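Entry 12.
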Amino acid sequence: MPRLGAHLSIAGGLPRAIDRAVASRCEALQIFTKSAGQWRARPIPAEEAALFRARARETKLPIVAHNSYLINIAAADEALRGKSMAALGEEIDRADLLGLDGLVMHPGSYTSGTEARGLALVAEGLARLLRERPESRVRILLEQTAGQGTNLGHRFEQLAAILERLDWSPRVGVCLDTCHLLTAGYDLCSEDGYRSTFADFERLLGIDRLAAFHLNDSKKPCGSRVDRHEHIGKGCLGLEPFRRIVNDRRFAALPMMLETPKLETPESRRRSDADPWDMRNLRTLRRLMKV
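Predicted 3D structure (tokens):
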């Protein structure tokens, strides 16, 4: 069965995210290792990292991080790209320190450049960062995007172009987001569309390249190229695509994390580490599983 979980807060310290995962009955976990909206990050104290790794071993949770939203190694602007490269390198190092299984990253936006040059910059940047870290055990997971503006990675062909330039390195995988797939134009709602989507993925990337899912419904329809997450079954995807995914034998061992809206009120946080909406969405997904 797939490992269902959620993206959870690290407020109060990194190990607290694992406590929240246990309270929420998560079987997988995604975190930020720092504030997603800031360039600078506080150093992770050795004691905190050791406690996090110990809790991860104890719970046996697959854990990935998502990198900062500010990072854009596809940027045409050299100053922004340089800053992004340094920040992404730091994200990889932090993930290694914590013993994480992967680091999810958006490929970036080509801004004032061209799509082809943007894809080349992503591949060149990743190749350099991985070359500088030969002992790193963290797998980079390119997240397929909704395709807003000049964002890269919304088509499987773009992800394949990056990986081809990296000689199909096993150190780089893919994370698929159900909301992004739909709004990028992949019709997951019909049986034929679902079958066609993953046939294309197999042909262009290979199913073994897929390392994780983000399970999110979408507020916007197929092909809109707008990234707006909704609770499971409450948006334009509905329940059937999720039923197909959680029962698809090809994905049986993969971590699948929610990035759906949370309640996030001070009172709810005082009462419990478990967010009520996360619990509700996880229950919905588990009910879709065939026993």
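Annotation: The two ends are 9 Å apart (CA to CA). The first helix runs from residue 14 to 23.
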